[in-house]
Write a structure and sequence with these properties.
The chain folds into 2 domains: 165 residues, Rossmann fold (3-Layer(aba) Sandwich), CATH 3.40.50.720; 163 residues, 2-Layer Sandwich (Dihydrodipicolinate Reductase, domain 2). 38% of the residues lie in helices and 23% in strands. The two termini are 17 Å apart.
Length: 341
């Protein structure tokens, strides 16, 4: 498979490292990389991954060779290269989905498969993109959009196939989980946020995390891809953690409980309605989600056959999200008969 990466930040580089290491049974090569700030390079025979990583901060330093093309923008990289799989790992915009949304549309219209870790297009336009992929017989991979490399979607689709999933509830944002853990240790909200920023978990503007927008985007993806919903971001009843005080934390601890920012999606009534919420909840220590600490993510699926099934794992990270791309590529390869089961 010939791959083009749109975006070459932490996730793109993490995936490139995984591909360079081998031992995954995948016959794939990166032929193009395009990054808004770092530039772009394309060679139809493939790029040298060690060299690519060595110039990762400035793609203009990738050495010249016959056939090398520079300067293609993202849409040209998608439409004018010989890549057959477009890997979209640019920045996320949960208001418009752009520019990633246009990138995925263009890939499918060119008959190219798309794998994405960018939440925006899946949260805002899943039905449209899924139909477009089917129309052009393309694969649409988005495992990394919810819990990074932890296979939350794949577990529901495959491991729990045959079960009816009534509800899903989880910790889908590691930054807020880290902040709440710091507050349990006695830190104020402001001090806990500052520590999260120092540790690299929280952005300079942390509102996407602490106000629940990131978790809401992931919840919309769960609702629409697994539950057949048609939810938008405004359909999620969302409350962040900014109003929680040390006194709230201490009161819960005294009662043998723990605050977590919980994202919940469930079928309501006769199953025709899907309801979704993101809000702080006090959980008993016996709840599997209560024991999930630090920046880790977790999800519990409520099923008819197995009852409650909980999956815990990393929800972010360079190599972890890179692995999500690999897992989608392996699924695509199996569908095309390029690797064994």
């Amino acid at each position: 498979m010939r791959l083009a990466l749109i975006g070459f930040g932490t996730v793109g580089q993490g995936f490139t490292d995984i591909l360079r290491a081998g031992d995954h049974g995948l016959d794939a090569k990166i032929v193009a990389v395009c990054d808004l700030l770092k530039g772009s390079v394309y060679h139809p025979d493939g790029l040298d991954l060690t060299t690519l990583m060595s110039v990762s901060r400035d793609l203009g330093k990738y050495p010249d060779r016959e056939g090398l093309v520079r300067g293609l923008d993202a849409l040209a990289t998608i439409t004018q290269t010989n890549a057959d799989v477009i890997i979209e790992v640019s920045f996320t915009d949960l208001k418009t989905g752009e520019p990633a949304l246009s990138h995925v549309r263009a890939a499918f219209e060119e008959g190219k498969h798309a794998i994405i870790t960018n939440k925006g297009p899946v949260a805002l336009a899943y039905a449209e993109l899924s139909a477009l992929a089917q129309q052009h017989r393309c694969y649409f991979g988005y495992e990394g959009t919810v819990m990074s490399g932890t296979p939350s979607l794949r577990m529901a689709r495959f491991a729990l196939a045959g079960c009816t999933i009534f509800a899903a509830r989880g910790i889908l944002n590691g930054t807020t989980n880290f902040i709440l853990a710091q507050m349990e240790s006695g830190a104020s909200y402001a001090d806990a946020l500052a520590e999260a920023q120092r540790a690299g978990y929280a952005e300079a503007d942390p509102s996407g995390d602490v106000e629940g927008f990131d978790a809401a985007g992931k919840l919309v993806i769960l609702a629409n891809t697994l539950f057949g919903g048609k939810l938008g971001m405004d359909d999620v009843d969302r409350t962040g953690i900014t109003a929680l005080t040390p006194a709230d934390i201490q009161t819960a601890q005294a009662a043998g409980e723990r605050w977590k920012l919980i994202a919940t999606v469930k079928r309501d009534g006769d199953g025709d309605q899907i309801k979704a919420s993101v809000k702080p909840e006090r959980l008993p220590i016996s709840d599997p989600l209560a024991s999930v600490g630090g920046a880790t993510n977790a999800i519990t699926y409520e099923t008819d056959m197995l009852g409650a099934v909980t999956l815990i794992g990393p929800g972010a990270g360079r190599r972890e999200t890179g692995f999500a791309i690999l897992s989608d590529l392996l699924e695509l390869a199996r569908e095309k008969g390029l690797v064994g089961e």
